[in-house]
Specification:
By secondary structure, the chain is mainly beta. 15% of the residues lie in helices and 38% in strands. The protein contains five helices and 33 strands. Strand 13 and strand 14 form a beta hairpin.
């Protein structure tokens, strides 16, 4: 779509947004986004899309009502692969996806708290996951397994650390209290630090902050500080909504509702603010993920992709809602990011109240792909191979708008069900031909498996999941024994052989 046509459509979109944005701020972030779409007695089995098809669905309960799915993460243990699906009050769902077409629930960690944001990491031979309570745990959370084992009360809020070393028997490890709650939390790549985002509104307090925990001893987490961030009196608030670390852990990017921050996290216990983005075109800065790619001249550029969860996931009047806003943060630009444009899903319709806006994404740098959930407009796959070139385009700038194709990104696959309310959409494995099974956690539908056939992109570098399986103590001990006895065996074996030779000579003499 041309920029001129896109601008005209944007004008119509902004007009439709007017009454919505004038309404009081949505309260979705006080306890997790709520379902807005509707479903029949059974979830829909047929939908529409491009280069994608629906493969399987798993229900978390048999109520026939909204399943309240939220975040999703993955872990590989040996030959088995698992999806970890969060819920609003239904506990952490552990699903075996070794055979993607036949996903099998294997356990539920009984923790009836709301939001259920998930991170997974490995620490000292244990596979751990964090699981969030936005707002307070409530009576149901306090009465569930995590509440009773941790001694929680209904008014408590924060994050639970869970042991998933044996996925069939999840265990409770510890509790990180955060007064304003844990809407999202992020584990530093080292696995030693946790940054908490409460995402509360302006009424939460006069001094927005990111709570930092030292989790080097997961059973005894230690609060390090409440790192203060700027107050910006626009949008839904100034608190951090979500944080993403760079792969080396020296940078963090905080999507903080009315602003987006670039942090120096070389010392994770004492971050520093390097840059700030206050963009009036972004209603709610929801997620901020960096990606470093090479342009046509071979020069690396780092682009920050910021999602706009317009109106905080409140009911929509039209699609496509909030889009993806793109900023060049290469080198010194991280102190003053430069906007190169915005991208919107090519989904134009008047909504009947079901949410339609960008939400949880994941970037796959080596494959130059991006997956994202778009609530009522289902799940989408983007080719982002042109982002670096877009940053150097002399026509790029804040007014550059793309619908489906442009600003260095192109939608190459999508799928929508009539009852879609997709909260997150990610994958753990991508084949060389670009195809993959993608997993959506849906507020209405529960756990969905889709297959993108790769026909619209061609070959890519394969993505393989990291094996988190702990080494067996027995095998470690055996290795130590082998190493420690090697010298001894070098002495014992010759002596034994010598004795055996003497024994044989004596026997021969007796026979003679």
């Amino acid at each position: 779509m041309t920029r001129r046509a896109g601008s005209a459509l944007l004008a119509l979109t902004l007009t439709a947004m007017g009454s919505l944005l004038a309404a009081p701020p949505a309260l979705a972030h006080q306890g997790g986004d709520l379902p807005t779409n509707t479903r029949a007695a059974e979830v829909a089995t047929e939908g529409a899309g491009e280069a994608m098809k629906h493969v399987a669905n798993v229900q978390y309960d048999d109520t026939g009502e909204a399943q309240n799915g939220t975040d999703i993460e993955f872990m590989r243990l040996g030959k088995r692969e698992y999806a970890l699906a969060g819920t609003l009050g239904g506990g952490l769902q552990v699903i075996d996806i070794t055979r993607p077409r036949r996903p099998k629930p294997v356990s539920v960690y009984d923790c009836k708290i709301s939001q259920g944001d998930i991170q997974v990491w490995k620490r000292r031979g244990r596979v751990l996951a964090s699981y969030t309570a936005d707002g307070t745990v409530g009576a149901a959370g306090a009465a569930s397994r995590c509440g009773t084992e941790l001694g929680l009360e209904a008014g408590d809020a924060g994050t639970v650390i869970v042991d998933l070393t044996d996925p069939r028997r999840p265990g409770t490890v510890s509790w990180l209290p955060v007064g304003a709650g844990s809407h999202n939390m992020t584990i530093h790549p080292s696995g030693k630090w946790l940054y908490n985002s409460n995402s509360d509104l302006l009424t939460a307090g006069s001094e927005p902050h990111i709570t930092i925990y030292d989790i080097r001893r997961p059973t005894r987490p230690v609060k390090v500080q409440d790192f203060v961030i700027p107050f910006v009196p626009t949008s839904l608030g100034s608190e951090s909504h979500d944080i993403t670390f760079s792969a080396d852990g020296t940078r963090a990017y905080s999507a903080a509702l009315s602003q987006t921050l670039v942090l120096d996290t070389t010392d994770p216990a004492a971050p520093e603010i390097l840059g700030q983005i206050v963009d009036p075109a972004v209603n709610v800065s929801h997620q901020a993920d960096p990606v470093t790619l090479k342009d046509s001249d071979g020069t690396e550029r780092t682009i920050l992709v910021v999602t706009d969860e317009r109106a905080g996931a409140a009911a929509s009047v039209e699609c496509p809602g909030g889009g993806l806003h793109l900023y060049d943060v290469t080198g010194d630009l991280e102190t003053a990011p430069v906007k190169i444009g915005a991208w919107f899903a090519p989904a134009y319709s008047v909504q009947d109240g079901a949410t339609c806006t960008s939400h949880v994404l994941r970037i796959y740098p080596r494959q130059q792909l991006l997956t994202i959930a778009w609530y009522a407009k289902g799940v989408r796959v983007l080719d982002i191979s042109g982002l670096a070139d877009a940053a150097t385009d002399p026509l790029a700038g804040p007014a550059t708008i793309a619908f489906g194709d442009g600003v260095g990104m192109k939608e190459v696959g999508h799928f929508t069900m009539p009852d879609s309310d997709a909260w997150s959409f990610k994958t753990n494995k991508i084949r060389r031909n670009g195809s993959f099974f993608g997993y959506a956690n849906d507020l209405v539908r529960g756990f969905d498996v889709f297959r993108y056939d790769g026909s619209t992109i061609g070959d890519v570098k394969p993505l393989k999941p990291r094996d988190l399986r702990p080494r067996r103590k027995g095998s470690v001990t055996a290795e130590r024994v082998d190493a420690s006895t090697a010298a001894g065996l070098a002495l014992v074996v010759p002596a034994t052989l010598g004795a055996l030779l003497l024994h044989r000579r004596a026997a021969r003499r007796r026979r003679d």
